[in-house]
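Table S2 (continued). Query chain:
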Amino acid sequence: MTERRLARRYDLSLPVNIRMPINREPRSHSGQTRDISTRGVYFMMQDDLPPGSEVDFTLTLPAEITRGSEVFVRAHGRVIRVDKRSDDNHETIGVAAVIERYDIVRGEGSRV
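Corresponding output:
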């Protein structure tokens, strides 16, 4: 199979907060990234998101990864694939999303 990705993918397991801007709901959903690139992200969560949904998400790259201070990433994207997995009567949703835009904020005082 030929690799079709245009951006390098990094295997990173980081906490991520996800919001669906179209619903304007104040509640965010939590998840865990599996991998991320400048063009996309794959994360695991408990809630189901339909393909095509717009998502806003935030995550923090720790200083150990950035070799400096923490970096906060705020991004907007669109769900392109949803994988439902079940193990031990526990369902987990894997979500692949393309990143349409993102902001990177460096430093201590910029927590989201």
